[in-house]
Amino acid sequence: MSKHSKFSARASLAAIGVRMRQLGIWKVIEQQVQIEQKVIKHTPLNKLLDTFINILAGGQGLVEVNTRVRPDEGVQRAFGREGCADQSTISETLNHCTDETVEQLRQALQTIYRTHSRGYQHDYDTGYQVLDVDMTGMPAGRQGEGVTKGYFAGQKNRRGRQLGRVVATLYDEIVVDRLYDGKRQLDRSLQGLVTATEDVLDLSAEQRQQTILRVDAGGGRDEDINWMLERGYQILVKVKHYKRSAKLARSVTVWYPDPKVKGREVGWVEAPQPYVKPTRQLAIRKRKHTGEWSYHVLVFTLPDQALSWLGRQPIRRRPTPDQVLFATLAAYDLRSGGAETIIKGSKQGLGLTKRNKRIFAAQEMLVLLAQLAYNLISWTHDLFAQAANKLRKFGILRMVRDAFHIPGRLELDAQGRLLQIVLCAKHPLARSFALGLAPLLARDDLSLNLGQI
């Protein structure tokens, strides 16, 4: 049997492709997604796969398919492809996607998430599930469908769309992504995002009672807070109305200086806003550059020990009021390590905002493919974390940029089947990468070794 070798600048990504085929992830999409388009050389779903490979390869735009995926036969073979479509034909395929296609891909991702995620397998009997809900701007050209002026952080008069996201924070996984027009904000999207999350996680009433929704002020309207409470969730939410916050803060009798943030003080609201269920409320104030105070209020239902756990504080049997207060503050501040960090990882590591399509459904398809890419990387990262401390602290950017770009040699048989992956032994991540994946790839008689390249 004749063999031949191919050099690849991202031989480690080929190993990810083999692992993805082992898990049968793309088969689910092939079974559930249909794109109506004439086939000349590559099927629509094969072109969708080429797009997905390009995202994992660090491609910031569709045009990079031609430089990152098309020249690399070994990586193509690892993902089950026998070639790669041109970026122009891929773009045409995305333009043929409809709202029905988007819904089909959502259902496929739900099946994949339920099969492979840790978030879906969470044990609600032993601890809380933590869900962070957030929105982020997706800047785009003014000709796109759904592109309007809206709020885009640090970008005045910018146009684009908005992305709503729910993440399973304990597991670094994206549960739901939804694309909206540029004017849409969390106050009009929260309930829909949470309802979609209930569908994906298949949450029962008992499980909702063991689920924490952590939301910023965008989801802090009275209607939304009452809705979450009526659904049975545990909540940690910032109140939306600044005038309401200032009014509630007037009932604080003792302000405690925050030892971690200079100029910030916190205190218990003693005349709380009534909601459909009992809550505790915490006021926060901070000096503005004008010397005046700005006020915020957190509304929550969690017991003391749960707040300490969520805020990564020592868990005490009988905490003092100020200890509970600072545990609550820490628990909310850690939002920055949940949804905000995952959004940042998607933008920096997966080029989430760099691939823009004029047609709304085409853009949604790209968003959903990036969601799948994020979760696949997260699940792969778990393997590395168990095998090698060096990769434990890697975020999405370093996984894509560094761990998936280890050069090497790919050995294929005459039919193009991948037989062996040899990573460059001099690469500082090669050994750690091999420790994490080699035992799994060996199940398919594929060896992952180190060698001279």
Structure notes:
By secondary structure, the chain is an alpha+beta fold. It folds into two domains: about 15-100 and about 355-450, no CATH class; about 120-340, Transposase Inhibitor Protein From Tn5, Chain A, domain 1 (Alpha-Beta Complex), CATH 3.90.350. It contains 17 helices and 14 strands. It has helices at about 10-25, 25-30, 45-55, 65-70, 75-80, 85-95, 100-115, 190-200, 205-210, 220-230, 240-250, 305-310, 320-335, 340-350, 360-385, 395-400, 430-440, and strands at about 5-10, 130-140, 150, 160-170, 175-180, 210-215, 235-240, 255, 265-270, 280-285, 295-300, 410-415, 420-425, 445-450. Strands 2, 3, 4, 5, 6, 7, 8, 9, 10 and 11 form a ten-stranded mixed beta sheet that branches. The chain has a four-stranded mixed beta sheet with strand order 1-12-13-14. The protein is globular, with a radius of gyration of 24 Å. The mean pLDDT is about 90.
